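Hi R.,

Here's the chain you asked about this morning:
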Amino acid sequence: MYNLSLNCFIKRKLLFIIIGILVGFISGFFGIGGGTLLVPALLYLGIELKYAIGISVMQMVFSSIFGSYLNFKNDISILKDAIYIGVGGFCGALFSGGFISLVNDELLGFLFLIFVLIGIYRFFKSPNESLSNEREVHNYVYFLIGCFVGFFAISIGVGGSLLLTPILVGYMRYNIKKATSIALFFIIFSSISGFISLSIAGFIDYEIGIIIGIFSLIGVFFGIKAKNQIGYKKYKNFSIVLYLVIFILTTNKLFFN
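And here is the predicted structure, written out as tokens:
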């Protein structure tokens, strides 16, 4: 009985390590916090949605900081717009813990699916070429966008890229690769703020979060390296596929299991 329990314990930890590396790669490659993949994965492992969200947010702190450092080494100019969006995201995410405490899992899952659909639509509408015609707006607009995205994104367990990247691509006219780099930097602010809020609300499993977070750094390194080597059109198509897979898996888990 002891050996059986020990084997189950080891297998569970190895599974979290593998998930961490995979989520890290997806995070680095697509500029997302990882929650879009991690939350459905944790749901399939039997973890309650609100705690899956908390673990996801904790992992984002690790991957977003390391991933943004690697992105800045390639293009420091993304910091100019990202800082205002990031500060707004921090402010908005502070209220996520209270919001989660007030709503049920069904509503959170429904909001998650809506944001995925928005992302799919905006990526389909975006051009197939890398363009440099960003729309000029005041800094307070970036801040308000950050507040909105930070509040809703952290509340459903994602860092914000799921909603922010389509806004930057579809409305602000950023090319996808630059938008994903800004979105990953934004996640630093929203995830730290969300981590504080969800910790106070009691929705974080620290042991699982640390395991997944640490090993996600390995995946982030190779994900960003792969992103910098792939063509623009192919990168857009990969992004659409990712969002479709996430939508199908989450829909199946929430409504058909």
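One quick note: The chain is about 80% helix and 0% strand.

Cheers,
M.
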